[in-house]
Amino acid sequence: MRQTRILAVASAAVLDLPYGCTPAWWQLWKALYENGADVIVTPYRGQPVEAPWWRTYPNPCAREGAAFAGMRKLMNQLNVNPGADPQNAGVTTSDKVVQELVRRWVRPRWERHLDEIFERERRIDAVIFFTPPSSHMAGIPTRLRDRYDVPVIYYDGDIPMSLPEFGGMDTGFDPENGGDPAEYDLVLSNSEGGLPRLRELGARRAEALFWAADPELFRPLDVPKEYDVFFYGIGDKFRQGLVEEFVGEPSRRMPDVDFVLGGRETGTKVGNARPLGPVPLNVFARTISASRLSLNITRGPHASVFASSTCRPFELAAAGAAIVSGPHAGIERWFEPGSELILVSNADEAVAAYRALLDDPGAAEAMGHRARERVLDEHTYGHRARQLLELVGTSQATGHGGAPVRHGRRHGARRARAGTLALKPQAYYVASRAYQRARLVRATSHERRHIAPGLRILGYHRVAPVNDVLNTPPENFRAQLEHMLELGFKPVRLSDSLELLAERLEDSLFAVTFDDGYQDILEHAVPILSELQVPASIFLPTRIIDGDLSFHWYRDPPPALDWDEVELLARDGLIDFQSHSRSHYSLPQLSDDEAHDEIFRSKHEIEQRVGYELTSFCYPAGRYGDRELRLIREAGYRVGVTTNPGINSGGRMPRTLCRTMVYWRDSLRDFDAKVKGALDESTHLQRWIHRRRSQV
Hints:
Layout: E1 5-12, H1 22-34, E2 38-45, E3 55-56, H2 62-77, H3 93-121, E4 126-130, H4 140-148, E5 152-156, E6 186-189, H5 195-200, E7 206-208, E8 227-232, H6 240-253, E9 259-262, E10 274-277, H7 281-289, E11 291-296, H8 300-304, H9 311-318, E12 323-325, E13 342-343, H10 347-359, H11 361-378, H12 381-392, H13 426-444, E14 454-460, E15 462-463, E16 471-472, H14 474-487, E17 490-491, H15 494-500, E18 508-515, H16 520-532, E19 536-540, H17 542-546, H18 563-572, E20 575-579, H19 592-610, E21 616-618, H20 626-635, E22 639-641, E23 656-657, E24 660-661, H21 668-675, H22 684-693
Parallel strand pairs: 1-2, 1-4, 2-3, 4-5, 5-6, 6-7, 8-9, 8-11, 9-10, 11-12, 12-13, 14-18, 14-24, 15-16, 17-18, 18-19, 19-20, 21-22, 22-23
């Protein structure tokens, strides 16, 4: 397996420079290494830093950059350059000096430097610019692509602060300063809400890659509590009013509570809060653990643009902190307000939240535990590294090698497709997930559930490292199967379970099923099933496997299994195949003859390929009525498989089987609640929706 080699051109690699992203880069590079990548780091500012997880090349302009930074600082202190150039409004003489220096000296040296790296390494699979000044790199991405046919990515970790309308930064893309996102094959952003603006500025493709936390670096520590309410921030720019609202005013109203402020450039004294000064990275987790409560106060621009991630909530949550957060649009994208953190909008709400949590340490500790579990499930840098490798175009993260997607080329139509949500009925699936999530929150807040005897059938669709509402990431799929085995469930093939269901089951069994026959099951699910020795059943729509139809519910259909792959898997014996109709049309909407053809012919077509008699029919989209129940029986199937929730207890031969459907963003905690029966009872709303969707 060829190792993916990534060249990282980083804003900085040393921690003593005032760039807040650098600790995050370290954690992400480490996670890339842990996911099999060979990471090479060359810094734009400062010196390189060697580490066990990456290799380095020097900064070709390190001495000149340091000298110039010192000169510019001195000029600012002496007020040598107070005004703007009258010929270019807003552009100071100092800015013009920088631009000329970059054009004549910095950019040519970086071009030669990168050429030397490519010559020495011979193979680089992707170049990622980790937030160096985009205008300083103008022309270099195009040059690399043209010379070396390599994808070039820019990761802007400062959105929305780096956007022109928020004042911009030297890292951001601004038509006025020469930074052009169209030069890059992909622009990554810490902000989901900032993606449309990046596209407006010219980005060919823009995707969100949120901040996260390394759960080993940020972990709960068993230390005495020293502080009541802790806030850490680098500077108070864009949040001074919020710091006063959530620290200053509450500290005056609560004189018995010890408020502490950590960080650089926090400005003047805030209420009765005590300043801690800078908190080094190596003691940050300890300081969080030594605090009864921790605050997340997000700067105004990030708080106002939807899902603009910052490092802080992930770091606090990973360390098990009881988090009280100020306003942050889209924070529910990562954490459950009211369960994993508390959201407040003013000083009154803040005081009430502080008092309630300080008076009930057990509740504060439980909330911190839930927040850490959410990080472990969804928000570690391991998760982000796997997402990044997939976006770059490699599948290193899932243990499969392969060349990256090259600029302007198509490498194989049968790759699992990544990208944004692809389903046409997206609203239905997103709404279903939201409804399920609300029920899970309510269910898990009640008594602990136990494992009931019976057959628990797990329902999946895709397994791939892609963003799709019908998909389960491979790492989640593995964790879910391992969890079932750890809970004491015994794996069984669905067809083998039918005889067992004739009697009341005393054991806890589980069967794995896949709907539709996506090709990525072969690549990503089968190796895990084989390793864990868990059998599975795949329900096939035969016209899609024939190639006559595609997955018509997608705008950009992923590939399906073909009959050669079906026959190969059937011979192996771990996987068996059952029917999912011919065309995956909604059966209740078809005429009697059409429904008969879909149910009868699909059985014959699959049996001709696999050489055994089929026992089960899975209703497309879970839609069926009395007619479909009758046709299933007449066609010779023993049972119909539904999407109705529940466990199959046995005691008689059922006409239909219930399933536990697994959603794309189910955390392991959600999954645990489901397999213990949290959603087994259908609600009135679900039964009404089923009746409406099954009407002829």
